[in-house]
Amino acid sequence: MKLNALMDNYGARSNAKRVGRGMGSGMGKTAGRGNKGQKARSGSRKQATFQGGQMPILRRFPKFGFNNPFAKEYVTINLGDIEKFIASGKIDAKAPITIDSLVAAKIINRTKDGLKILAKGEIKTSVNIVADKWSKAAQAAIEKVGGTIKNK
């Protein structure tokens, strides 16, 4: 078999129906569009959401809520996670823990708008943390074991 001899099976391909090419073609005059109406015209189509002239469902339901375009999204990390990563050796407890050091240790993927420390879990190691936000309980837990937390 040669590449120039390859062919489709008989009937696998058919020519497109040429509409509007005279009465003898069987698809002349209205070209299969029927008589009059919006669908018979060129260029004009109903929208996919058109519901027969009644008020569309998207306009009937009330709109509510608000998305603040200026809202900041923080990366959160719990004290229990910090303790776990110190124990596994991913974080050095003697060096300050910053958002950049967490990215370098592959604990978080991206920095977003800053770092927030939360108090879930227990911390036993004295650490120095540089963060954008933290909970009061997290600050109390860090200072209880002799660590510090400050704003960057």
TrEMBL record:
Domain of life: Bacteria
Biased composition (Gly residues): 21-35
GO cellular component terms, A-Z: cytosolic large ribosomal subunit
Record keywords: Ribonucleoprotein, Ribosomal protein, RNA-binding, rRNA-binding
Pfam family, one: Ribosomal_L27A
Endoplasmic reticulum found in the keyword field: no
GO MF term (any one): rRNA binding
Residues of the Large ribosomal subunit protein uL15/eL18 domain: 76-149
Region: Disordered, residue numbers: 17-49
GO biological process: translation
Keyword flag Iron: no
Subunit structure: Part of the 50S ribosomal subunit.
HAMAP family reported for this sequence: Ribosomal_uL15
Family assignment from sequence similarity: Belongs to the universal ribosomal protein uL15 family.
Stated name of the protein: Large ribosomal subunit protein uL15
